[in-house]
Amino acid sequence: MGLDHKKFKEIKAAFTLDDDTLHHIADDFRAEMHAGLAHKEGASLRMLRTFAGLPTGRETGTFLALDFGGTNVRALRLRLDGSGKYKVESKVAKPLTLPGVYEYVCADAPAD
Questions:
Q1: Which of 5, 11, 36, 69 lies in the 20 to 30 Å Cα band around 111?
Q2: The domain containing residue 69 runs over which residues?
Q3: Tens digit of pLDDT for each residue in 54-86?
Q4: In terms of domains, do 22 and 66 share one?
């Protein structure tokens, strides 16, 4: 059975966005992020300011990095040497198998 090119084009068209639509989505998403950061009533995104500056590459020391993905949680301990280089000292990844696990690691409401 070969590829049905007509069906493929129909499916592809259903998932294709023109530039104007894509820009509109990006603008709406940006507005929702700003509303969330301002703790506006009815904001669809709850966000917390980190007050953390952007990295410069001159940071030094041992740091913990956490990544909560859709199916896994990863933890890394890494050492930054101040020259923009790093060494991963240890790494652990575990599957998220318990339903509702994010309810215990995410904020339910913006911090006061």
A1: 69
A2: 54-97
A3: 889 999 999 999 988 778 889 999 999 999 999
A4: no
